[in-house]
Each structure stands twice: as C-alpha cells, then as structure tokens.
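**Entry details**
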Amino acid sequence: MSINHRKSLLSHSSAIMESIDSLTIAERSLPPDIIPEGDSCSLGPISEDTSFHLIDGKEYLKITSAEQFIKLLKCEKSDRVKVVSIFGNTGDGKSFTLNHTFFEGRTVFQTSCKQDSCTLGVWAAFDPLHSVICLDTEGLLGATNHENQRTRLLLKVLAVSDIVIYRTRSNRLHRDLYTFLGSASRAYTLHFQSALQRAGQRVEFGGSASALGPAVIIFHETQHTDTLPSNNSESAEDILRRQFVQMKLEIEAFSSLRYIGTKTISPPTCFSELRKAIVLELKNTTVRSARQPQVVYHTLKVLNDKFSGEIENSASVLFPDQYFTCPIKCLSCEQRCEMSMGHLTENLDHSCSSRCKYQHQYENCTYICKTCHTNGQEVIVIPKLTSSSESSWFGLAKFAWSGYVIECPNCGEIYRSRQFWYGNKNPEDSAVRTEIKHVWPGSKMALVASQNAAQKVLDGVTYISEAVANVGSPPTRLISSWVADQIAPKYWRPNHEIKHCHACRTVFAVNASKHHCRSCGEGFCENCSSKTTAVPDRGWHSPVRVCDACFKQVSANSNLDVLDDIDDTEVRVRKYGEVVVNTISTVASVLEYPRDLIKSSARPTYWVPDHEVSHCCCCEVVFGPQEMLHHCRDCGRGVCAKCSPGRRPVLRRGWDNPVRVCDQCLKQD
C-alpha cells in the first residue's frame, strides 16, 4: 500500500482519530440492527472495500499463497498487523459488530435479514486505520450437518488471533458461552500451543509459548435485563471467572479476560466501549506483538493443514438413553442394563445386548444342552457329582468310579466325565456349549461350579442323627431326670415338680434344661441362674450355680443360718456326678472341632463360611447356643430356623430334592 493512499485513509478518518467520544455521536445516526423488509437486506452503505472468503465451511483454505492473501487484504508486505476475530451464536450480529467497530458502519462483511446465514466459514478484511486483520466467523448453534467440523475451524481461527471478541445478545449469559471458551482454552493448551510454537520457529516468529494466548473480550448486549455489575469489591470479570470455576472450566490459556456490557433499550447499539477496549488491547504489546501479514497466513495454513481430515459428526441427543434406562450395571463387564426403568416391577429381567466377559469370582459361565439348542430350545444344564435319580451314598460311590454327570431335563443324562477307561471328551466337545452370562446384582443364575454332593451326605447323616435324637429324647430325658433326683440333696426340689422357672415363671419345654440353685434348691432357667458363688452353709465351698436373689443375699451376709441339717454324703454324691458330667461335656466340645472342620470342607463354594456369619440374614437375630445356624441352599447365607421353614428344590444349585430355603428366596420365586 502506498504512503499517499495511507495518508488519504487517515485524513478520511480524522473524525475517528480526533476523539472516541465523537464516534459515539456519529454512530447514533447509523441504521439499527434490524430493518424493515425491503429491496436489500444489507445494513449500512455499500463499501468498495469488501471482505473475501478465507476458509469455507469444509475447512478448505481458499487462498493459495501469502502474496494472494496480502493482495486481497490490500495492505503492504512490510506492514505490522494484529488479528481480531469475532465469535458468537448465529444471528447475534457478529458481522454487524465488525462493520460498525472498524469500518464506520460500511458493509464490509455481508449482513442479511434472512433466516439463512450469510457467513459460512471464515471471511477476512483489513482495517488500515488500526492495522487489523478482521476475521468474521460462522455462528454457533446454526443448523448444520458438520457441527464438529465447524467447531474445529473456529478453534483454529481463535488460535491464530490476537484479540477474540465473543458477541452475545442474550439477556442473560448462556451456558454455551462458558462451554465454548472453556473448551477452547483447554484445546489451545493441549494442542494448539505446541503447534503454534513450532509454526513460529518455521516462519521466524519469536515469542514463548505462554505469550501466544489471545485476549478475550466478551461483548454482552441486553435489552430487558441489566449487564453484569462492577464495583470496587468485585468486577464483572471476577464474576465471570468465578462462574468458570463453578462450572469446572479453565480459561488459563487466554492472556486476559474483559467484559463489555451495554443495555440497548432502543436501537442503535452503542459500540464505543467495545472500540475503546479494542484500541487499548491493540496498543498493548506486553503479550502479543504485531506480525507481518505473511506470518499470519503461514501460521493459519500450518494449523489448518495439521488439524484437518474427516471428523465424526454425531448428532447431539437432547434426551439420552441414560435418562430412562435401568441404572444397574453388570458386575462382570460393567455394561449397563438396556431395559427401561422399573422393568423389575413388570417381572422383566435385566438385559444387555453386548457380550459379557468371564470372571472366576462370579463363575458366570453356563452350560447349554447342545441337542436342545439344535432343536431351538435353550436349556441350561449343571454338572453334578450325583444323578438326581441316585441316592447320596450310591451316587457318591458312582462318582468315584465314573466321575461327575451332566443331566438335561429333556434328554436325560448327556455326559459322564469318566464314562470310558480312556478317550473321554470334554463336555464342550460333545454335549454342551458354553455361554458367558451377565451378572446382575441380586439376580440368580445357574452356576457350573456349584458342587454339593459332600454336603448332601452330611445332610443325610444329620437328618438320621436328628431323627434318632428326637425319638429317643423323651425317655432319655425321663431317665436322666430320675437319676439326677436320686443324687440330689434333700433341699432340692425334684425335677418332676419343676414346671416353670421359680423367678421369671417361664414354662419349661419338654427338652429344656432345668437348673437348681445350690442355695435355695429351687428350679430356674439359664438366664435367672447365671451367677456363681460359694455356699458353705450348704456344703458348697467352691463357686457353684445360684439364682440371682440368693447371690445378692450371700454377697450381703456370708453368715446365714443353716436351714436344715445337711447330709455331707448326699452333697458329695452330687459333686461327683457333676465332675463326671463336666468331663463328658469337655470331651464333647473337643469333638466339635473335627466336626466343624468336616462341615467346612464339605461346604459348597457359594455358602458363606460359618465363622463369617454372625446373625440371620432375614430377622437379624444373633446366632449362639440357643439359636442354631443354618444355610439357605439358594443364596448360601446364614439363616435361623424360624426364617427358613420352607423347602423346595434349587435346581440351579444342584439340589433336585426339596431343601432348606430362606423366606427371602421363597418370596423372590
């Protein structure tokens, strides 16, 4: 550009250079943002200096060389320029803002009152007054099939800019402003910063990577609401930064953040404050220095070539499936259930179309009968040590000879692991096909590794022993009570006269234990005679069982009067009898440990170990001497007798005959 031409432009804009306040007066005569429909939809007078298409909507750079770029800008190669770009939603007047901020309202960038956007891609023009390359961009939220590609193009323009204007005309700042700037800052730090540094070295453009961040000016125009307040305690920029932090968005990539707010009750829009902020930022060279136009072109070309190619344009879904589908995830593969929420109330099981993965702790591998599968049926079969038609003892002996068995309810016995002396095939090769199932929390599935033959044998022995004990218990109890009365002291009440506890009046059951107080001789229950102390007046010189009332009396007064003459021989006989009983009880307790070891070894893998069970899974009662521990054959948890009266087969666990099941599992069925 010649010096004479520059001087003519400066003289033409002398009104602008004299005072910025005079610009405010001049712009009030400009046409409004929206005009009535007429022959032309362009806003402002037609200018000979028009913008040119720099990058189209498909990210193709339409300028082939730096010389062509400089020629279309109508500037000199030696000029030092800065780049100002504008962003915002479609229809917010970005082109109109550039025309009135840099070109006195002349239509350098095309505007339109039609619904279709007139700015596709990136358009460029040169402002010789301020030595600024203005870049007008395609609006956000516009109807397009290439939204992701458009966003990538905008980020490349932002990276090459020195000043970024975000134009919005919303009465309140929308989330898309914060999202765009926060995402742009993150992308600039992760991807564009290093690329710009390498591009600067190639085109001999100095400056550190930290000095390459653009300055951001948010130009907010409202009509019915106030703009962000600014006072001594908190500025509008502080409010914006706090909002970015609350939304967990970063803006560290930008060298500065400035907010310009204006309330336009009636047109035209006042751009004076925006123009002041831009002029001050253009004069600031502490962060960004002016560059030659060919440097700008080469930098933009490097970024456009590097970040290009096909990009997936997935349509954004306003109501994703996660809002309405079941939130339960598979324990094995962590895939989400694809059924709608509340499907369990409709008796519909969890479902997922993706394939699951096998994990040993869940044992989520099932066997499907191959013959039934060929016939169009999916029948789950389970390997068992014994056949359902064989008794426990005979089946266990047959297992030692022929191995485990797989039975199908339709086909019968389909596999024996040791059916032949040699050449036995695996079940997957001949009889079954494997399938990995999803493991849903609280669901039940047939397990391959659920072997319970040993527990069946123990259950049979326990059943026989309990039956014999129940049949022989009444006469045995009568004989033991008669023998106890024969060796009891005279002051003891006979067992056949004791019907209830002398203290709490609890009626004794047939098999309930009756305890005698060594002091008063009355019959008590376990809870009312838990104290021990010496009763020398009765001949008991070592601590023995007494009731609670006598324990208090003996503790208060150790010199009680002797009620009757005590025969030492009778007391001595009772003492000897207790020694014999205690010895037998000690031997019985020693035998409990091998029995518990056998039970632990025979326990199925899905059973909760006895030492890990402290209370009933249904009623929360604590297990102890008076509350026996049982296992539910379905879920494997510990349960008391009152909460497991039901009996039914549990085929998925290998129990073909009715077995103990807790109330919760019965309700689920």
Remarks:
- The chain has four domains: 47-228+236-306, 343-451, 468-600, 604-668.
- Residues 604-668 form a domain with the Herpes Virus-1 fold (CATH 3.30.40.10).
